[in-house]
Specification:
- Strands 1-2 form a two-stranded parallel sheet.
- By secondary structure, the protein is mainly α.
């Protein structure tokens, strides 16, 4: 990923891309310095190699990038929903005649959307 990150970081400096935002995550603080020193000065977030850390880092970053938006759900709530979805994912895959290991991004996205719609209907009743 360092190569792709470097490409994005360089491309971001070009005129039409200056408004693009970038969140860089790593499992350990400052580990990136071992393989990509050009990121010195960037605010790289550590997630401690766990799902909760990733969710919190992304949620907090999105909130900071959108300070005027409606309040976001907290990291604990999002983590609980993710864990609930993860438990339901094997059933969703089976229903769609897919193996979890074969899911492409678009398939995963559609399963998430289906799951959220089902949860919204359940919560309204």
């Amino acid at each position: 990923m360092p190569y792709e990150l470097g490409l994005f970081h360089g491309y971001k400096k070009s005129f039409p891309q200056r408004k693009k935002k970038l969140l860089v995550l790593d499992k350990e603080p400052y580990r990136y310095q071992q393989f990509i020193s050009d990121l010195a000065g960037c605010d790289i977030k550590s997630h401690s190699d766990n799902v909760e850390g990733v969710i919190k880092a992304v949620r907090d970053w999105l909130r900071a990038e959108n300070p005027d938006s409606e309040p976001f759900s907290g990291a604990a709530f999002v983590t609980a929903r993710f864990q609930e979805f993860s438990k339901d994912l094997p059933k969703l895959c089976k229903k769609s005649n897919m193996k979890q290991s074969e899911l492409e991004y678009i398939d995963f996205k559609k399963l998430v959307e289906e799951w959220l719609k089902t949860k919204q209907k359940t919560n309204k009743t």
